Amino acid sequence: MFDDEGSTGRSDGGPAKPGSQSALRMRNQLRLTDQLLRGGPATQAELSRLTGLSTATVSNIVKSMQQAGLVTLTATTSSGRRAHSVRYIGDSSIAAGIDFGRSHLRVVLANRSYQVVAERQIPLPLGHDATAGIAAATQLLEELLAEKGIARSMLMGAGAGIPGPIDRRTGKVIQGAILPEWVGINLHERLKSALDLPVFIENDANLGALAQITWGAYAAVPNLVFVKIGTGIGAGLIVNGDLYSGSIGVTGEIGHLTINESGLICRCGNRGCLETIASTATMIQLLSRGRDHPVDAEDIVGHAKSGDSTTLRVLEDAGTAVGRALANISNLMSPDVIVIGGPLASLGELLLAPIRRGLLRHAVPVVGENTTLATSSLGPRSEALGAVSLVFQHGPSLHNM
């Protein structure tokens, strides 16, 4: 791979010849810009690793782009050293990220600089069907555009995710979704028709994983697992820096790993799946016994932080089971980092400690000891932010704009 930029090419102001130094510089700048557009802000060292360009070449290109007003540099730290995070600001196009949940809808609008320009979450009734959910998303998107004075022509596309598997061959939601009313619909076609935009769809856990390496703190991490613990439990897998989708797009269904062969029947039809032990739905059911009013996920967080022994015991059992499932994943792919997301992520170490115990107990020692376990810093926005990144990765690039 050549990235040498010794000479300046033509001096007559004409177009660069193929193979000239100026043409090579243009290709290298395009490569670096595409990385910033698709991967978000990164340090110059990270850009060098991700693009394959030398550090000197990256430094020269960044300096030139900064002088041209295409990027900004912000002081940061990387591996304990001072560095500068490079952010692209030379494109005004907007992407929409849509997160369809079991009882909520979140829409985010963000620009190519990976800055959120508008965001809102609204409740959706339990049991809502696809027609109602898509109509609500369409209306909320139009409201956000109007409120921020954003012309619809600036929208380059919309990414969307749901809590359930999607067959990439057909674009259809398949059995196993937390939204059973959506099973069988072609989400891609329905949403594309309603929004009149290019649309890109994914499972919500996959979007959460994508958000960690684009919006989160793990841009330089090649192998990562994002686990969303909610009404269901799913995982998104980043392998060698890319989202892993398998042969048909259905991956990371760790909620249906068998933990107890004599356990409860799961909604998938099997017995003793992880979801029957560690989902928030199971925790809520256990902790609501004997109470006048059922608890919710926020109550679980509050009770755990206040030291409620029953809540902590439920979290211990659930976390240990999750850790056991993650040990199987870790033994298979040896990730650098496992990030825990979902409504309980704010518990931090109260949630991570039992997960870590289960992971270390069941993983190959050298794998478990070298896998970093963390909670997501992106909160409930992870899936919507990942949906935005999906547009930036698969929407129009500088090569065809």
In short:
The chain contains 13 helices and 15 strands. It has 401 residues and is an alpha/beta fold. Strand 4 and strand 5 form a beta hairpin.
Report on the structure:
With 401 residues, the chain is α/β, with parallel strands linked by helices. It folds into three domains: 21-88, Orthogonal Bundle (Arc Repressor Mutant, subunit A); 94-209, 2-Layer Sandwich (Nucleotidyltransferase, domain 5), CATH 3.30.420.40; 217-377, Nucleotidyltransferase, domain 5 (2-Layer Sandwich). The protein is built from 13 helices and 15 strands. The strands form four sheets. Strands 6-5-4-7-10 form a five-stranded mixed β-sheet, sandwiched between helices. It has a five-stranded mixed β-sheet with strand order 13-12-11-14-15, sandwiched between helices. Strands 1-3-2 form a three-stranded antiparallel β-sheet. β5 (104-111) and β6 (116-123) form a beta hairpin. α6 (204-214) crosses α13 (382-394) and α10 crosses α11. The chain is globular and about 70 Å long. 43% of the residues are buried.
